[in-house]
Amino acid sequence: MLGIGFNLALIGYYKYTNFFLGTIDHLFGVDLQIAPIIHPLAISFFTFQQIAYLIDVDRGHAPPYSPMTYALFVTFFPQLIAGPIVHHQEVMPQFDHTITLSPTANTAQPSPTSAIPAIPSAISDTVTQTVNPAESSRSHPLAVGLTIFTLGLIKKIWIADPIATISSPLFDSASTGQILTTVEAWSATLFYTFQLYFDFSGYSDMAIGAARLFGIVLPFNFDSPYKATSIRDFWRRWHVTLSNFLRDYLYIPLGGSRSGHPALNLFLTMLLGGLWHGAGWTFVVWGGLHGIYLGIDRAWRVGCAAWRDQCVGWRCWKDGWPVRIMRWAGLSLAWCLTFLVIALSWVIFRADSLTTAGSILRSAMGLNGTVLGDLVPAHGAIAAALFAIVGFAPNLMEIMHRYEPALGFCDRDRPTPPRWLTWNPKSWLGIPFGILMFFALQTLLLAPESEFLYFQF
């Protein structure tokens, strides 16, 4: 308990002291002298990893590892800055195998997943422990690692950063009090939605690829989240390791769905999840909004299940073409609606204040009295291309699926990409990927300084 308290005190002081003092100052007019506090990089990530381990040791769910193994777990650098949030059960058993850190290890090495329970991504009470190692899971670790790392870097340098040149000026203008046109508001919303995904998932891919160079397989963190057809499905796909933590160490201890107030438990869990992202009311409101989304989603699913049980026509026609058409139309509508509410919620997440967020959202709805504005044709084409990628294309983990790209990825049933999109280790591929790596690094060195968005957390 002392270790848990120390970690909570650490993150509380560095990350939230000025937030709470500023709130008190604003509410009560107290003239507090608030000095700036520079918090350690990625404090939210490494404190959560340590808290999870300490809680499991206290519950008797984890053995006390040696100081050297624990130190390696805490300081293992690939994912340290911006995740994935690594659970001790996922990597500590890998550290115990001395052959693990040899990048030339072959399939004769024991697979780490054989000793690690797979953790589902949805916020639910069900914890399954199934293992399904991928074909040739430990072969070609250098090729797999370098490929994933290179493509993750490309996501950041050649997709996320150029998108930021469109979205950031619009948010900056809104923060100065300028009223955006309807087209500008939607451009800011959509392009930031894409920027955040490619930036954060790009870093996660780079972390997974870098760890693979050392023979360590990290958990996957993104599973095409913008293909989600519900908010619950979205949180099964977005920042998967954070969803796991919130479920196991907040939602279930609060009572989960077995208590009398599951919607309240969801709301509190997401409220704290929003606060984890940052010390500001925009993050609190964003988290609370997703808590409300999840509560509505749960009520809808329960209501639909009850209706199907009582509907005689549904039972008679559930395999007929009318129901199949209705199901397809319903999923399409659900996909569009889910993407819409998620994109609008990102405005609150990105804005520097609730006032700025409100102004952008009002402009998007045409409530600021502004004209429609001029659509830049190039921006429309870029948005359409990005939407096609995130909505229809296989993700990087699916392309690499034959070589266990990340822990937990193979535990779900998913469509297999066409053969021409399935990665295979070919010696000649080293040439184009080497060229891509060279130009990506050159772009990184020559471009203006650009941090990953999740570094601030």
Order of SSEs: HHHHHHHHHHHHHHHH
Percentage of β-strand residues: under 5%
Number of helices: 16
Gyration radius over CA: 23 Å
Q: Provide the domain count.
A: 1
The number of distinct β-strands equals 0
Give the distance, in angstroms, between the N- and C-terminal Cα atoms. 24 Å
Shape: globular
Largest sheet: none
Helix content: 55-70%
Q: Could you name the ranges where pLDDT drops below 50 across 5 or more consecutive residues?
A: 103-139
Structural class: mainly alpha
Mean pLDDT: 82
Question: What features would you describe in this structure?
Answer:
The chain has one domain. With 457 residues, it is mainly alpha-helical. Mean pLDDT is 82; it is low at 103-139. 60% of the residues lie in helices and 0% in strands. Helix 5 (141-175) runs parallel beside helix 16 and helix 6 (182-212) crosses helix 12.
Characteristic terms for this protein:
457 residues; 16 helices; 60% helix; 0% strand
Which secondary structure elements does this structure contain, and how are they paired or packed?
Elements: H1 2-28, H2 43-59, H3 67-75, H4 88-95, H5 141-175, H6 182-212, H7 231-237, H8 240-251, H9 262-277, H10 281-310, H11 312-317, H12 321-350, H13 354-364, H14 377-392, H15 396-399, H16 430-446
Helix pairs in contact: 1-2, 3-4, 5-6, 5-16, 6-12, 6-13, 6-14, 8-9, 9-10, 10-12, 12-13
